[in-house]
Amino acid sequence: MLVLGIETATKTGGVALVGEKGVIAEYTSNIEVTHSERLMANVDRLLKDTRISLADVEGLAVSIGPGSFTGLRIGIATIKGLVLATGKPVAAVPTLAALAWNLPHSAHPVSPLLDAKKKEVYAGVYRHGPAGIETILPEAVLPLAELASRFNEPLVFTGEGAGLFRSELQALFGQRAFFAPVSAMVPSAASVAEMGRMKLVAGERADVDALAPLYIRRPEAEVAWEKKQRSR
């Protein structure tokens, strides 16, 4: 099965094609251009460069969050448009799990971190096992100190939050803190496509009508609107 994967959960976005023999092509960029400006241009470029038409793609996969509210909406809206146009099946891939997928040979559990603002992080903890990736801590939003209080074992940190809060993590975890290489800390559309392909081959398809971002924390605009309504 040939799968097109889309990753837009953070500023680092990308698209990738993955087939039975592995990654065919992947484009990743971390630039000051919104996903709405670059996403479909990159999909078009990917298909042209690989000489593969959208009709030849057999499945779609999308990173669903947590992450940037705007980025996630753009990625999911694009996938819904592609499903509407092609009728292809789609798989929903949690962003933190896809980040952990980048480190399959880690001797310790992997904890992907993304900045959630308000001195908190989006965090999860995963372990690679014979059956694939296992979830130890499901996606959550919490302070770093709470993460440290839950885990006494070594963790391998990855994601933009690992770089942003490296000194704090070292202070909290000491010698139990390990860090992924910089190249493995960014979200990968190829990881999204590969995990999505596994889901689709196993018959696990997302309901495109119900497909929505995994925000974990409610959007600030929604919270502000409710406060405004209550104050009237």
Explain the overall architecture.
The chain is α/β, with parallel strands linked by helices. It has two domains: 3-95 and 186-230, Nucleotidyltransferase, domain 5; 104-184, 2-Layer Sandwich (Nucleotidyltransferase, domain 5), CATH 3.30.420.40. Helix content is 37%, strand content 27%. The protein is built from eight helices and ten strands. The chain has helices at 35-50, 69-86, 95-101, 144-150, 160-164, 166-173, 189-201, 220-230; strands at residues 3-7, 13-19, 22-29, 59-63, 90-93, 110-115, 121-129, 132-142, 155-158, 177-179. The strands form two sheets. Strands 3-2-1-4-5 form a five-stranded mixed beta sheet, with helices on both faces. It has a five-stranded mixed beta sheet with strand order 8-7-6-9-10. Helix 1 crosses helix 2 (69-86). The chain is globular. The model has no long low-confidence stretch (mean pLDDT 94).
What is this structure, in a nutshell?
Helix content is 37%, strand content 27%. By secondary structure, the protein is α/β, with parallel strands linked by helices.
User: How would you spell out the order of helices and strands?
Assistant: EEEHEHEHEEEHEHHEHH
CATH architecture of the largest domain, by name, is: 2-Layer Sandwich
What is the first-to-last residue Cα distance?
54 Å
Count helical runs. Answer: 8
Look up the CATH topology of the largest domain.
Nucleotidyltransferase, domain 5
The average pLDDT value, as a whole number, equals 94
The biggest sheet amounts to: 5 strands, mixed
Question: Ranges with pLDDT <50 over ≥5 residues?
Answer: none
Tally of individual domains:
2
User: What does the overall shape look like?
Assistant: globular
What portion of the residues fall into strands of 2 or more residues? 25-35%
Query: Which CATH class of the largest domain?
Result: Alpha Beta
As a percent range, the share of helical residues equals 25-40%
Strand line-up in the sheet with most strands = 3-2-1-4-5
